[in-house]
Amino acid sequence: MSRIGKAETLDLKVGHILAGNKGDYLVEEFLGEGSYGKVAKCSKLWSQEYYAVKIMKISRAGRKEFETMKLIQDLDPDENHLIRMYECFTCRSMTCIVYELLKVNVHDFLMNAEQLVRLGFIRVIAQQLLKALKALKSIGVAHCDIKLDNIMFADLDDMNVKLIDFGVAKEAKELSTRTRMQVTQFRAPEVILGLPLDESVDMWALGMVLVCVYCGDYRFTSRTEYETIRAMVQIFGLPDADVLHRANYKADHSPVGPPSAGELKREGSVQSGLGVSRRKVPLWLEPR
């Protein structure tokens, strides 16, 4: 085991020790990695406790997430189905946030399930996540990135889920029509069209999540905003004229003609979702 302190370069490996404010954490394994950094399963030394430690590559991003988590500390994490944070500390130029260790995210659960999720369980999941959104709205916070990966099971036996990853969460009053958020499959139409935004963007994303769980597939499978908004129009019809009048990006998403260069350029800077091709999806994930 090697100890990582504030004076050392952080090149994390299994067996390294992170020196926290409330104890030291031994890196047991890595659970995931992304543009933000890594998530490691860690055991707290001299105890039988395990945690998920999120290690940020960029301290500013880590500090922002910590500040957001502080906003929701007065909300009961278990009662409101939100992930629990234990502490935040710096290690060299890295920011480490210690969270409770949960079981599996909804995406991985669906990919490994042998049959569709029963409607009764979906109701339970919906009720829990609606409670989470209600709690966040009570303090004026929007999650802004609800998707299958960011919902995890705390207990598989009773389908107890929690909302995780507040890395891009914002206070609702800070949202603007220029805010880019959400992966395409879960992106609210008001985000695509450039309309005024509020916490309702999370409600749309939650609806898309529940459709995925019920059908075993994305409702809107396109990876471009242009095709996504076309699919929405085919189902729901054109937005009202006054809504289109207020939209900043309506020219980019006209129901006729090809997407504009501006739309394609913006789309190129947004992650396209989970990156799983349909041919790699199990047969049970095909539409009913």
Give the structure's gist in a few sentences.
This protein is of the alpha+beta class.
Structure description:
The chain has 288 residues and is of the alpha+beta class. Helices cover 30% and strands 21% of the residues. It has two domains: 99 residues, Phosphorylase Kinase, domain 1 (2-Layer Sandwich), CATH 3.30.200; 180 residues, Transferase(Phosphotransferase), domain 1. It is built from eight helices and eleven strands. Strand 4 and strand 5 form a beta hairpin. Helix 3 runs antiparallel to helix 5. The termini are far apart. 31% of the residues are buried. The C terminus is likely disordered. Pfam families: Pkinase. Keywords: ATP-binding, Kinase, Nucleotide-binding, Serine/threonine-protein kinase, Transferase. Belongs to the protein kinase superfamily. This is Protein kinase domain-containing protein.
Keywords for this entry:
288 residues; Phosphorylase Kinase, domain 1; Transferase(Phosphotransferase), domain 1; 2 domains; seven-stranded mixed β-sheet; two-stranded antiparallel ribbon; 11 strands; transferase; ATP binding; Prot_kinase_dom
Total count of strands: 11
Measured distance between first and last alpha carbons: 51 Å
Strand order of the largest sheet: 1-2-3-4-5-7-6
* The CATH architecture of the largest domain: Orthogonal Bundle
- Globally, the shape reads globular
